């Protein structure tokens, strides 16, 4: 207990002072990974406070990912959150808190419930097709806020959104076809289009998102087989299309009989999301919209569980054939666990915690980062527009040398447009302290000479 100091009057709430002492001791190396903290009652007696004050302090530090509670076994300094000198991930869009004790508890409970609910044969055998009715029903429950009540016969359980997108490209287009998309779009879609020998054709945007007038131009010029959209907290620009803009795009799609892939991983995170394009199209019968929603951005990427909704009147069999050729089936264990979390309400409760954490992280980023930021208050990422003198290559290489991963706009470009901007992801940092360190380091790089362009005179 060498790290323990007397509490000072007027220096903030007592539980916060205790939490600060623990964090400082971990950062200074006085407390090391695997060290056991004193029992809460013992620390309460030493500091002259009640037990609930210490309990609250320990809980506060656990939420930062620095402590792990092992029940009667005590509380220990965590290994995952204690490497203050390690790399900080600002490049991958993953939900925060995956290293927390709360998520570990949820994972343990979900694993137990999964094993109790299904036989070994169910969990380890082949399951080819659209998914078991129970799993499709869980999907319908998860999708209800986004698209309303859905016939489970229209839902296909997929091993991740990436597989669903690739399957739709295979099912609804041919090699050599064009697919219309934003000029800046999800790299996974670009990779799928490239590997499957489709051409991703960028549609220009204005301050409100994809421009319907330019979509009409692209349709006339390239005759695309599909339109791919990520309309809510768009990756990478973080723009959310208004209902009016969605409706206008659907009108153009209907004019050219253009099916739409609505890739919508962030709808449940958005502050005030408009109606999905799937719902708007269903109400107007304008054009088929295939809806894709994944648990990767709201719960955890490792679940590899996504739901694909095939619009009424469109056949399932081409999509199922394409899915089978790509991945055969989702992992039964993960699908069962996702269904268990949805049915029990654990998934919705965890989503609420993720949104609260992301609101804090977005506020931290807005305070630290320079420049023009575009973001949703609960988004996993933000779009940081930079001065034109920035040299992306120097910036990313210098950032990597300093333990930061960042993603520049070229990673999202169809080739026709690449602004000077970064997508900054906020969920990968282990806790808010590490995020603050990473963002501060990035801000210093942007203000210094590390990212300035170097001109060669020949």
From TrEMBL:
It comes from Achromobacter arsenitoxydans SY8. CDD domains: AAT_like (cd00609), WHTH_GntR (cd07377). SUPFAM superfamilies: PLP-dependent transferases, Winged helix' DNA-binding domain. One of its GO terms (molecular function) is transaminase activity. The keyword Transferase applies. It comes from the Bacteria. Keywords: Aminotransferase, DNA-binding, Pyridoxal phosphate, Transcription, Transcription regulation, Transferase. In the C-terminal section; belongs to the class-I pyridoxal-phosphate-dependent aminotransferase family. This is GntR family transcriptional regulator with aminotransferase domain. Transmembrane segments: none annotated. The keyword DNA-binding applies. PANTHER family: HTH-TYPE TRANSCRIPTIONAL REGULATORY PROTEIN GABR.
